[in-house]
Automatic annotation (TrEMBL):
The keyword Transcription applies. Keywords: DNA-binding, Phosphoprotein, Transcription, Transcription regulation. Pfam families: GerE, Response_reg. Residues 156-221 form the HTH luxR-type domain. Transmembrane segments: none annotated. InterPro entries: CheY-like_superfamily, NreC/VraR/RcsB-like_REC, Sig_transdc_resp-reg_C-effctor, Sig_transdc_resp-reg_receiver, Tscrpt_reg_LuxR_C, WalR-like. One of its GO terms (biological process) is regulation of DNA-templated transcription. This is DNA-binding NarL/FixJ family response regulator. The modification 4-aspartylphosphate is found at residue 55.
Length: 228
């Protein structure tokens, strides 16, 4: 099965470099290029993209707004968005994850990291590697704590009441960036059981994927941020 990739970045030279890299893989193909967010949303629908590599800062409709539009459109429910960033301390990163992005990746990442990110996202998993994703989420939510938590959603904590004890345990492990196999080993259950608990937690909490589960775990206070 070929992974259909859409490139959204206002820099044509960078899009060209990504296209060469992606098209060199036998299991991937670039199906479109967008220079702004509005075009990315349109092409995601028209080209039936599986994964969108989305730059945050673009003229007109930026990557954050485009991610929200893709996440809110039932016709694009299967589309996964990977945010491209320079890894600057940027509130847009966490906002994008909340909006439905599956994760983010630095533009300076190694080619193999980018290709691996596309495959992870296409499989429906959260791009929690490199580990900087989890670290940045923790950092921003810790800043929110110091600011009084004005950006928190109180309903998130209440919705945790719908989870079973085991689902909470699994959610804590997911927030730690652990894979299903790792969680299974830690909790002494099968990977299939872990996957079932993850899916049930996602359904109960209204999470699009594992990345949003991580955000919810921090926002609700189930997992406390640790800042170095």
């Amino acid at each position: 099965m070929t992974i259909r990739v859409l490139l959204a970045d206002d820099q044509a030279l960078l899009r060209s470099a990504f296209r060469v890299l992606v098209d060199s893989e036998p299991d991937m193909e670039v199906v479109g290029e967008a220079s702004d967010g509005a075009e990315a949303v349109r092409l995601a629908r028209e080209q039936r993209a599986d994964v969108v590599l989305m730059d945050i800062r673009m003229p007109g409709t930026d990557g954050l707004a485009a991610t929200r539009m893709i996440s809110a459109d039932p016709a694009l429910a299967a589309v996964r968005v990977v945010i491209l960033t320079t890894f600057e301390v940027d509130d847009y990163v966490v906002q994008s994850l909340r909006a439905g992005a599956s994760g983010f990746l630095g533009k300076g990442s190694e080619p193999e990291e980018l290709l691996n990110a596309i495959r992870i996202a296409a499989e429906g998993e959260a791009l929690l590697s490199p580990a900087a994703t989890k670290g940045l989420i923790a950092r921003f939510l810790a800043q929110e704590d110091s600011a009084g938590g004005a950006d928190r959603d109180p309903a998130r904590a209440e919705r945790l009441d719908s989870l079973t004890v085991r689902e909470r345990e699994v959610l804590v492990q997911v927030a730690g960036g652990h894979s299903n196999d790792e969680i299974a080993e830690r909790l002494d259950v099968s990977p299939l059981t872990v996957k079932t608990h993850v899916n049930r937690a996602m359904a109960k909490l209204g999470a699009r994927d594992r990345a949003q589960l991580v955000v919810i775990a921090y926002e609700s206070g189930l997992v406390r941020p640790k800042v170095d």
